[in-house]
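Handout, page 2. Input:
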Amino acid sequence: HLMAEMPEIGTLSNKAVAKLAGLAPIANDSGRRAGKRPVRGGRAGVRGVLFVVAEIVRRYEPDFADLHHRLSQAGKPKKLIRVALARKLLVRLNAKARDIRRDLAIAP
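Output:
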């Protein structure tokens, strides 16, 4: 589903992929005022799948569980934790897709 909704994965930087998925903070600043930086826009279907999969991965992958524990102990809101886990998963998937694309380009 991810490759169908986001064929750019593996070809863009992690920041660009996160922005495409709607998992990057968007500045809401003007002059001296610095507003909150919510995540918005992007591809809702991809984001929804990443939220669900990141929650499942958190149960079985120690570094995801550690990130969740650290953020919740710091008193971060639940939505922020969900976004952080989904973005971490997306960054890993982007790296794997990049490696696969590179290996396929090298193979005869």
